[in-house]
Amino acid sequence: MSYGLYIGKNLTADGIAYLAGYGDEPSSHWLEIVPRAHHPAGATIHVGVTPQADLPGVMSTIPQVAETARNIRVSYSYYLGVPAPLTNGGLNEHGVAVRDIWSTSRDELIALTPKDQSGPNYSDLARIVLERARSAREGVDLIADLIARHGYADYGGNSHLIADANEAWVVIECSGGKGLWAAERLGADSVRASRPGYIGVIPIDQPNHPDFRYSPNLVSFAVEQGWFDPAAKQPFDLNKVYGDGKGRWAGVAWIEGEMTRRAARREKIGIADIFWAVRTEKLTGDTAGYGQVVPLYGKVAPELRMLWHTQVGAIAAPFAPVFMGVSEVPEEYRQHRYLTTGESARFLDLRHGDAVSIVPQGIESTRSASAVFKRLQNLVAQHDDLFRPEVTAVWEAIERKLTADYPGVVDTVQTLIDAGKPQRAAAFLTYYCRTELLAALELGETLTRSIEARTRALFGISADPVPKSAAQIW
């Protein structure tokens, strides 16, 4: 389902907007830096879903653009039969960030979905926005144009949160194969959580309202189906007409209220508050595949755009910095066989040429950061009241150090860039981020050994088939 949280720039201590959240999928997750790329005339990309997907469809090709932007993203290997690799989004060199969040359509729309649906799927849309958009508004335009031209291949409805330094947009893409979509603008004073993504009342009597956009048939189709009656003089509530009708879920209402309360303080919302909002045990557990916090800077060198990343749910890992200027990701944070779909039937052995692992042997010979942190998460979860406060205190201390170091890192890189030494800037950033990501991993292993030893001594290792976790709102 995933989780997204947008905080407008007027509500933060540093005057910067933020987009945060996590991916909610059980398969393998890995961190990627995707370079800017040039593509020949006539190039195409494959999009859509296969006949084996939960809501079946057909793959198709759409035109590629001449140049795609450098971006940081987390990829994963499975969701509801949609072709891998998949992504919920990330950040591009132009300062556009994307989060994909499930948003179910009403049952009747899902039933209308053609068996041969085609066009981009939710991951395709997130990836294309990362690769092409130079602003959040342009990201909305891209999604609208892609749906109009090529259709939309869905698994029951979805949404995207697209943000830049000045604004964000919630985009809801409806199931049913009818090209239905709507978008709501969020500004500098907005707090918005998505899980699922939602839009409430749309002022359809003001078709040029600057905060809302939608497909030409959004209202007319609802009228045709008898889901909305203009004569009743009722507001057009998108969630009620086309969604699950539940409005804001309890977890969404809670975190939006909590962040609004923190924004009202004299100190407003700091980055530690946003780390907390992604880490809190009320919202984050084993389903969180990774964590992400993106500061949405305005005009900065592309190399200095960055996000804070945890390889699994933030309960079990600290947020570490990943800059756009990094040339490579540590091997430990790349794709491993751990939880990668299909790897249980493959080998790292050429005698099985038709079933060779998709993971390079050298990468697999390194530790899997996902496996290390997930092991810690499972140890903590079994005795949450005892171990979570201890682990959280360690992560928060690391994050305080990293955020304090951040201005010095930026000054160093900017000095190198101004001196005409971009390669040295990239080398410094790569060294710095690699060092901190691996330091987080080492600390994760140290905590794991300590908590495992104490678990064995105090409680023994449980074989209870019922897993434990902290109580969550959703």
From TrEMBL:
<comment type="similarity">
    <text>Belongs to the peptidase C69 family.</text>
</comment>
<dbReference type="InterPro" id="IPR005322">
    <property type="entry name" value="Peptidase_C69"/>
</dbReference>
<dbReference type="Pfam" id="PF03577">
    <property type="entry name" value="Peptidase_C69"/>
</dbReference>
<keyword id="KW-0224">Dipeptidase</keyword>
<keyword id="KW-0645">Protease</keyword>
<protein>
    <recommendedName>
        <fullName>Dipeptidase</fullName>
        <ecNumber>3.4.-.-</ecNumber>
    </recommendedName>
</protein>
<dbReference type="GO" id="GO:0016805">
    <property type="term" value="F:dipeptidase activity"/>
</dbReference>
<keyword id="KW-0378">Hydrolase</keyword>
